[in-house]
Amino acid sequence: MSRFRLFLAGVAVFLVSVAIACAGGSGQEAPQPALVRLPPGARAGQWVLFGHIRSLERKSGRFEMRFDPAWLLNGVAAQRAAVEDKAISPGDPVPNDGQYTVDEGHRLLTFVVAAKAPVTVLEGGLSRTRITVSELALRGFGDGFGFWIRVGEKCLVLSLDQQYQP
User: Fold this and answer.
1) Three-state DSSP state, 15
2) What residues have CB less than 8 Å from 65, skipping those under 6 apart?
3) Are 164 and 122 a contacting pair, CB within 8 Å?
4) What are the boundaries of each domain within the chain?
5) Residue 109 contacts by C-beta under 8 Å, 6 or more apart in sequence?
6) What are 85-115's pLDDT values in tens digits?
7) Can you name the CATH fold of 37-163?
C-alpha cells in the first residue's frame, strides 16, 4: 500500500474516532458525514461565530449588523445542556437531529459587514443560494435560522452562511 493510501486510511480512522467521540462514545450513532455542516474555515487572525442576525442596515455607506451570538451544540454537549435547561428529560434524545442551541444573554453585538461579503442562504429546503449583503438586508434573515459569520480585522464581517436547523 502506498504511503498516500496509508495516510488517507489514517485520516479516515481519525475522522471516525472524532465522530464517535462527539457522539459521546455511548453507543449513539455518529452524525452522518453527508449531513454534517461545518462553519466556514477561518484564517489566522479571523474567527467564526454562530448566532442570529437581528438587524442589517445600510448606514453611512456601509452595512451595520446587530448580531446575537449563540452556541450550536450536538453530541454530549447538546444532550447535557438540554437536560440542564429542562428542555428534555435525562436519557431522552435531543430533538432537531441532535442539535441544541444555547443562547445565554441575547446581548446584541454590532459588526460592520463588508459590502462584497459573500452571503449563502437556504431556499426550498436545503438548497443553498449565494446572494449579496444588500439582498439579505431586503429579504430578512429567516425566522429562527442562525448564521455563521466569519470576522476579520477590526471586526469586519467577511462572510455570512445560513445554518440549516430542523
Assistant:
1) helix
2) 53, 55, 56, 110, 111, 112, 113, 149, 157
3) yes
4) 1-35, 37-163
5) 66, 67, 68, 69
6) 999 999 999 988 888 999 888 899 999 999 9
7) OB fold (Dihydrolipoamide Acetyltransferase, E2P) (2.40.50)
